[in-house]
Design a protein that fits this description.
- The chain is an alpha/beta fold.
- The chain has two domains: 133 residues, P-loop containing nucleotide triphosphate hydrolases (Rossmann fold), CATH 3.40.50; 55 residues, no CATH class.
- Helix content is 35%, strand content 26%.
- The protein is built from seven helices and eight strands; from the N terminus they run E-H-H-E-H-H-E-H-H-E-H-E-E-E-E.
- A hairpin with a 2-residue loop joins strand 7 and strand 8.
- The mean pLDDT is 88.
Length: 190
């Protein structure tokens, strides 16, 4: 399930349908479920700019109910930063992430929370809460090399497994994601 916070499912789908790796049948057969969180907020009557702790619980339970009902095994929330702006305080953000994490774990659902960070910052999250609670952190960014802007990917943290901490160039191709090791220094093909 892809839980979209800022972009409507229709717009998201229009942007990714051009890629061969997205099979429309996955959506038709409900193997890939797209949910717009603002629509969920509206249906739950949570239209205020700031949510209370009780309302945080309502959102968590609603997401967990959907995961359970549809037997979701992988969940992406894009983005937890946007959810955080509606929660406002670190206490509510931490509570939301902890409750959601515990509930998803109990349902044996793997989750990926997208968090935005400011360029050229040393932080791995906006609210400084997400990174402490996360089992893994994958940092995506941009890097300029010889006048080209390259997308990069680096696994910063992944609990329970050894992993490379090297930075890779990421390219989104019609067939899928291509990762190429970032060559050090000024030489090489990049």
């Amino acid at each position: 399930m892809f839980l979209s916070v800022t972009e409507s499912s229709e717009k998201l789908l229009a942007n990714v349908i051009q890629y061969d790796f997205l099979d429309k049948k996955l959506i038709d057969n409900q193997k890939l479920v797209l949910v717009d969180l603002p629509v969920m907020y509206e249906r739950l009557g949570l239209v205020k700019a700031e949510l209370s702790m009780e309302e945080v619980g309502i959102i968590v339970l609603s997401v967990l109910d959907l995961v359970k009902e549809l037997r979701i095994k992988r969940l992406v929330i894009d983005s937890i930063t946007s959810v955080g702006y509606k929660l406002k305080t670190q206490e509510k953000i931490r509570d939301f992430i902890l409750r959601l994490s515990k509930g998803l774990s109990a349902l044996e659902c793997t989750s990926m929370l997208v968090s935005e960070v400011q360029p050229n910052t040393q932080a791995y999250s906006t609210f400084m809460v997400e990174e402490a609670l996360a089992d893994g952190i994958i940092l995506m960014g941009n890097m300029e090399r010889r006048g080209d802007l390259l997308r990069t990917l680096q696994v910063i943290k992944m609990r329970g497994t050894s992993h490379s901490r090297a930075k890779y160039v990421l390219d989104l191709t019609p067939a899928g994601v291509l990762l190429v090791p970032l060559l050090k220094g000024g030489g090489g093909n990049l």
